[in-house]
Amino acid sequence: MTARSSEDDQQRRTLLVVLILNALLFVGLGAGGILADSSALLANAVDNGADSVVYLISFLAVGRALSWKRGAARLSGVLLLLFAAGVVIDVGRRWWFGAEPVGWTMMGLALVAAVVNLACLLLLKRVTSDDVNMEAAETFSLNDFAANGGILVAGGLVLWLDQAWPDLVVGLLVAALAIKGGVEILRNAARAADNEETIR
Fold first, then answer.
1. DSSP code per residue over 94-155
2. Neighbour-count burial for 64-85, b at 16+ CB within 10 Å, e otherwise
3. How far is CA 38 from CA 18, 90, 94, 198, in A?
4. pTM
């Protein structure tokens, strides 16, 4: 392991803060998703839970060798893709067996989560680094913030139409965002590996 610099310390502090915030969102959105019977909220909760694991991996990667960091980034991308598959399965189950999401709960929790995710994104953007793991962390927070907006809209449509399908559609959109983010992270990790080979 290489000696940690002040930049490494800043990265570790920032990642620790966003890790804790995402873990709290995982618990809050998960409980809310169960109570509100909302696929979109549960998808967002699992997303934040996966993010927490990824932030922990990224936290451990700070100050380590580039090969270790690339491996951590690849694991992050794979976790996001696995999460997306789980969400798609859950949406299919709810579509088949039926669901009765609560629009007001969806909207309220989406607003709270949006504020927290925006704070995480701003914290991460303050860290000046071209590290693949920090790029991955930014991707996660941006995806989460976008997903919160979708859940807010879905909650409003559920209230207006008295139908469950907007919740299911947004659950699928959250999964699509996760797939996009996971692919981007894997590409960035591969690009970093190619750049290192070119330098050699």
1. HHHH-----HHHHHHHHHHHHHHHHHHHHHHHTS----HHHHHHHHHHHHHHHHHHHHHHHH
2. beeeebbebbbbbbebbbebbe
3. 24, 10, 9, 48
4. 0.77
Whether the Cβ atoms of residue 173 and residue 143 lie closer than 8 Å to each other:
no
Distance CA 122, CA 125 (A): 5
Cα 114 to chain center, whole Å? 12
Categorize the per-residue pLDDT at 193 as very low, low, confident or very high, splitting at 50, 70 and 90: low
Q: Mean pLDDT across the stretch 93-122?
A: 91
Residues 6+ apart with CB under 8 A from 93: none
Q: Which amino acid is at 157?
A: L
| CA 106 to chain CA centroid, nearest Å | 18
The residue with greater pLDDT, 51 or 160, is 160
In tens, the pLDDT along 70-89 reads 777 788 788 888 888 888 89
